[in-house]
Amino acid sequence: MASTHLLNHFSREQLFDLLINQLEGFIVSDAQGRYVFVSQRWTDLIGLSLSDVKGLYVHDVTPDTRVDQVLRDGKSRSGELVTVHNNRGEELHLLCSYTPLFHEGEIIGCFTVASLQGMDEFMGFSAKTDELFHKLNYYHKELAEIQGAKYSIANIIGSSPGIYALKTAIHQAARSASTVIIQGETGSGKELVAHAIHALSPRAAQPFIKINCAAIPSELLESELFGYASGAFTGASRHGKKGKFQLADRGTLFLDEINQLPLQLQPKLLRVLQEREVEPVGGVETIPVDCRIIAASNVPLDRLVRSGQFRDDLFYRLNVVSMEVPPLRERKEDIPAIADYLLERLNTQLGMAVPGISGQVKDRLKEYDWPGNVRELQNVIERAMNAAWMDTLTWRHFEGYFQRKSLRPDQHSGTGAATIRQAKEQAERQAVIQALHTSCGNRTAAAAALGITRAMLYRKLQKYGLEGYGI
Ligand SMILES: Nc1ncnc2c1ncn2[C@@H]1O[C@H](COP(=O)(O)OP(=O)(O)OP(=O)(O)O)[C@@H](O)[C@H]1O
Ligand SMILES: [Mg+2]
Known about the structure:
About 45% of the residues lie in helices and about 15% in strands. The protein is built from 21 helices and twelve strands. The chain has a five-stranded antiparallel sheet with strand order 2-1-5-4-3.
C-alpha cells in the first residue's frame, strides 16, 4: 500500500529525476547540437560523464546521431538504430527516439531517449531480415533466369555455313508466333536456339517456360503441362495448380525432348495446339492460353512417326517451322571459336582465370568427332581447366580424356597377338560404343539395343572407361 501512495508525495523534480534515471540513455542537446545534459545511465553505458561532454557536439561523440537532422527539420524520429562506441572501444547498438524542443516557435534543442533494451532481439531480427532479403534477391534472379530466355542469338558461336543458315532461320522464326520444331543430336545447341528465338521475338518480355518431357514421370506430366483443378485428387492443393501452358501465357513454352512424350498424352497436347485452350486435370472448365510452342527432339521425329512411337497428327501440328541444328563434326571450323567462348564462360562460372587455349589444342580438337557435340566439348574444356588450374590449356591437359576414349579398334588391339578374352572384350567395347552412338548417348536406349540391363551397361561403361561418353 505504502508504495502506491509514495509517488503522490513526490515533487515534480523528484518525479522527473526518477524518470530520467530509469531511462537507459537520456540526452538533451542545444539548438547547435551540443550536449546540455546526459543522464547517469548514459554515463554508465558510454563511460563519459556530463562534465566530459558538455559543450561538445553530439555528432563528434556519436557520428551516427540523428540530432542534426531533427534540429534542421524540426521533425521527431523514433526507432532509429544508432551505433556508438563506449570508452572501452566496444560497439553498442542503441534504439533511439529524438524529439525537437520548441520554445515560442523556435527550435531550442533536441531530446533523445536511447535504449539498449530489446536490442538483442532487434539485432537478431534484423540479421534475419537481412538474410531473407538476400535470399529473396537470389530467388528473384533465379526466377528471372528460369522465366526469361537465358541466351540470345549472340551466344550462338560459329561462322560455318551451317550456323549461318541456322541464325537466318532463327531470325525468320522470331518474326511469327508459329510452332517450331528443333531437331539435332544431343548437346548440339537446341535449347540455345529455343532461347534465341524467344529473345528475338515480340514475346521476349514475357515468360519463357521450359518443360522436359523426359525428365518428369509420365503420371505427373499431364498435371505439370495442363495444371490441376482444386481438389482434383487427394493431396492436391486446395487452390489447384497452374500448368506450364498457363505459366507461359503470352510467352513461349519450350517442350524439350518432345520425342519422349508418352503416347497417351499426345492427343491431349494435340488438342491444346488445335484449340488453344487447356483443360486442367480434374476440372470441368477450359482455360484459353496464348503461348508460342517451341519443341525439341534429339531423334528425328519422322522416324518415330514411321515406327508408331509418335502420332503423325501431332507431328504435323508441330512441324510448322522446322530447324535442324547441325552436329559439331559437320562444322569443325567453328570449334576454335566455340572453345574460346566456352573457356570464357567457364572462367566466369567457376571463378577461374585460365588465360587461353593453345593453337595446337584447337587444331587437335578438330580431329575428334564429338558425338556429344558442344556439351561434350564444354565438359572436356572444364576437365582440362581443372587439370591446368591457372595455366594456358595445352594438349597434355586433354590427353587423358582422348586416350580413355580412343574409339578406333586398332588402337586397342595392342601388338597384334590378342588372346580370345582380349578380342572378346574389344568387340564388346565396340558394341557398347556403337549402341551409345546410335542412341545419341541415351543409356536406357543403348542398354535396350544391347539386350542388357542399364545396371549392366553402367558396369561395362566403367570397365571400358566410357562413363562420360556422349553425355
Ligand atoms: N553454337 C554454340 N555456341 C556456343 N555454345 C553452344 C553452342 N551450341 C551449344 N552450346 C552450349 O552447349 C551446351 C549444350 O547446348 P544445349 O543445351 O542447347 O544442347 P541441346 O541440343 O539442348 O542438348 P540435349 O539434346 O542434350 O538436350 C550449352 O551449354 C550451350 O550453351
Ligand atoms: Mg536440351
